[in-house]
Amino acid sequence: MAILQNFDENRKTKRFDVAVPAQVTSFEFSELVRVHDLSRGGCRISSEGSLSLDKIVHLELYIPKLIHNNRKSKGLMKCGMISGKIAYCSQWQLGGIKQYGIQFLSSPIESHGIPKIIREIQRNTERYRPVMRWVA
Length: 136
Description:
Blueprint (H helix, E strand, L loop, with lengths): L15 E11 L2 E10 L3 E6 L8 E9 H5 L6 E3 L3 E8 L8 E7 L9 H10 L13
Antiparallel strand pairs: 1-2, 1-4, 2-3, 3-7, 4-5, 4-6, 6-7
């Protein structure tokens, strides 16, 4: 008999659904990716590239300027870099795109943009979906 495990019960930090672009880099890898969920402990991304488990990567989020300065600014702003390791890789591919879980190596600070996004989500009762714009 198979027992299904609810991975949400094992999470140390609450995850929030998002749809924001980010740049992921490592020594031999750099790609614009999409972040699907975000927490203070890590995130889930989709990528066309190939990343191995335990690989150290650096993530820079692009967040709406509106969140950053609380004004009616348009466009996206690149946030500070946070390092993490690949903790999970999906076994399936959709059009060559894989999903990866990144575990942050340190707690996010304001310049990373993560606390700002989480505060904005917590302020709103409906699901947070910033306008997607892929920036090179």
